[in-house]
């Protein structure tokens, strides 16, 4: 569905994407993870065929976006990070009129609009103005609108940003249903649990390059341990205690408020900590997550 080899994107002297190789297979959910400025959005805009490629080779649905942009755009759907709904129109007309932009006849547009209202659980809001909708409803409508042309490939840029947990899970269910129906999904997200839940495979981007790629499980196995023991001691004590626990795990991370001990058996780590006479104020054993991988690869420093 997508093939990129040595893909680059520059804005003047600034190189946002520095030569990446990506392959997205039909019917899978593929994720792009990375901090701000990693090059995710620039890559997505090239895949959407709305931003020209600076260098390398890119094929979407077997076509070249440089020469086949309109043909590609007619077969894909795009759900942008910011809602771009038309506030002058009601919910139904946002779908109907958008469908007409694709040259779909009126009868088919009406039929698809009603189908998508049901899919988005918005049938009872068909005549409502967009401004009357909650944030979750607007996101569902935006995704529904991106499906009006029955795309083979759906691009979703931060699809659940700003939503409450209930709304996020409703959207996850809808995206899973789309994948089951054969739609290929390409997702950017800052939520690691979302990436673990939705993505079959993903890449972690940092500073315009791919730092790692694979399934969520493969990445956790390769870059982390099965479990993490979080140990909280008194303020300012963590740095001085590293030497007393560093042999208990494969890796130790010192944070201002806790020590993270990466090991395959977190409970065993905790037992040995107590055997050595150390008394953490609080302790927690959890499984390693994609967030541990993400922070190890991209760092904990804030990127603007």
From TrEMBL:
Its main location: membrane. GO terms for cellular component: plasma membrane. The keyword Nucleotide-binding applies. Keywords: Antibiotic resistance, ATP-binding, Cell membrane, Membrane, Nucleotide-binding, Translocase, Transport. Gene3D superfamilies: P-loop containing nucleotide triphosphate hydrolases. SMART domains: AAA. GO terms for molecular function: ATP binding; ATP hydrolysis activity. GO terms for biological process: response to antibiotic. It is a peripheral membrane protein. Residues 2-232 form the ABC transporter domain. It is found in: Cell membrane. SUPFAM superfamilies: P-loop containing nucleoside triphosphate hydrolases. It comes from the Bacteria. Belongs to the ABC transporter superfamily. This is ABC transporter ATP-binding protein. It comes from Nocardioides seonyuensis.
